[in-house]
TrEMBL record:
Pathway: Amino-acid biosynthesis; ergothioneine biosynthesis. PANTHER family: HERCYNINE OXYGENASE, SULFATASE MODIFYING FACTOR 1, 2. It comes from Nitrococcus mobilis Nb-231. This is Sulfatase-modifying factor enzyme domain-containing protein. It comes from the Bacteria. The lineage of its organism: Bacteria, Pseudomonadati, Pseudomonadota, Gammaproteobacteria, Chromatiales. Gene3D superfamilies: dinb family like domain (1.20.120.450), paralog of FGE (formylglycine-generating enzyme) (3.90.1580.10). Residues 19-146 form the DinB-like domain. SUPFAM superfamilies: C-type lectin-like, DinB/YfiT-like putative metalloenzymes. Residues 184-311 form the Sulfatase-modifying factor enzyme-like domain. Keywords: Iron, Oxidoreductase. Transmembrane segments: none annotated.
Length: 388
């Protein structure tokens, strides 16, 4: 077997593993729960699995092979811009039917990928197994989002719980790392990288320091107990308006117990570890916290420069809000479709770097840019401080 073939076998196995994870999540839930919309920004769990199977089939059959027999009637259900979130529950198949349908189209797709006809191999999307990487990463991102849905479901169904430990506040340590002085290359040219990670370009530091660790639960509690949610001067104008509207006073999954706090997760209630990264805060809260701590959020390039120098610790617990908006790199070219990144370069989306406990290896890389609007709290997001 040639090296290239080995790569392909591994990628096919990865795709199959992603699909199995999705099936497992659906398979162990009560029948009714897969069609519930638990949060206005999230889709029903059943929709996610159907969408992943649809997207896989759409790219392989409709785009590469020009055969729309399976997908033609499903565009209005599974293309996000053709079916608003609130309408999705009514389209979710019954659990067994969903498992059977997604299982069947997925097996057919795997067989096609394992032994593609000659004209399929020539397609530009098949070069360097691009489409396989793309589909694996697509599944990986939806699987993470399915965990956000599971956490919202816990918020809905779980009763009172007694934490095993008391969370006590701690002042932010502010252990700072010096950002590299010399220019650092930002982005990734690997074939698997998304359009928004390219092209690579040099960045020279502006600020000087970035925190070694993300902000912790204990530090965030200090902000709360110091009336961080009530001090207007810590908030930007839009941030304050957002707060006034939502009346938020703690991270999204935190719950108050008699003498302390705990948090809900995709796997149920759990203690808030004092040194674990705080999760479930939006950009505005991250911004207010950093002002309270006498710091600021890092620009995404500061974050990436520090991550490339191997400096950052505590990675992979939460997505970390960056100071800047999501924007195209100089020389950006959209691929494999206009809609992946371009619509979100709208000055309303912030950038998140790093990755959470639910982020799977195919999308865990230093150059990966996640993006959400500034008010989102259902994602597993926290922050890391920076200083000039
Ligand atoms: C990059 C996570 C914001 O969920 O909308 C999934 C990823 N794009 N299917 C999203 C995505 C198309 C995207 N995020
Ligand atoms: Fe998608």
């Amino acid at each position: 077997m040639k090296e290239h073939e080995l790569g392909k076998a591994r990628r096919i196995a990865e795709l199959a593993a992603m699909h199995r994870r999705g099936q497992d999540i659906i398979g162990r839930l009560p029948v009714e729960d897969i069609r519930i919309q638990y949060h206005e920004d999230l889709s029903p769990l059943g929709w996610h699995l159907g969408h992943c199977a649809f997207i896989e089939t759409y790219w392989l059959r409709e785009i590469v092979l020009g055969d729309n027999a399976t997908t033609a009637t499903l565009h209005g259900v599974y293309f996000p811009d053709l079916c608003e979130k609130a309408a999705r529950p009514e389209f979710v198949l019954g659990r067994d039917q969903l498992l059977e349908w997604t299982g069947a189209v997925h097996s057919e797709n795997l067989a096609l990928l394992a032994d593609p006809p000659a004209h399929m191999r020539q397609h530009r999307l098949m070069r360097a197994d691009y489409l396989l990487d793309f589909l694996v990463q697509h599944y990986a991102q939806h699987l993470e989002i399915m965990h956000y849905v599971l956490a919202q479901r816990e918020l809905r169904i779980s009763g009172p719980w007694t934490p095993g430990r008391t969370l006590t506040p701690a002042n932010p340590l502010g252990e700072a790392l010096r950002l590299p002085r010399q220019p650092v290359m930002i982005g990734c040219d690997a074939p698997c990288a998304y359009d928004n990670e390219q092209p690579r370009h040099a960045f020279r530091r502006r600020g000087k320091y970035i925190a070694q660790y993300p902000v912790t639960n204990a530090e965030y509690l200090a902000f709360m107990e110091n009336d961080g949610y009530r001090h207007r001067e810590l908030w930007s104008r839009v941030g304050w308006a957002w707060l006034d509207n939502t009346r938020v006073d703690c991270p999204a999954l935190w719950r108050r117990a008699e003498h302390s706090w705990y948090e809900l997760s995709a796997a149920g209630p759990r203690d808030l570890k004092p040194d674990a990264a705080v999760r479930g805060v939006c950009f505005y809260e991250a911004e207010a916290f950093s002002r309270w701590a006498g710091a600021r959020l890092p620009h995404e390039f500061e974050w990436e420069a520090a991550a490339r120098a191997g400096l950052l610790q505590g990675l992979g617990q939460v997505w970390e809000w960056c100071a800047n908006r999501f924007h195209p790199y100089p020389g950006f070219r959209p691929f494999p479709y206009e809609g992946y990144s371009t619509p979100w370069f709208d000055d309303r989306h912030g950038v998140l770097r790093g990755g959470s406990e639910h982020t799977l290896p195919p999308v865990r890389r230093t150059s990966f840019r996640n993006f959400y609007t500034l008010d989102k709290r259902h994602i597993c997001a926290g922050l890391r401080l920076a200083w000039d």
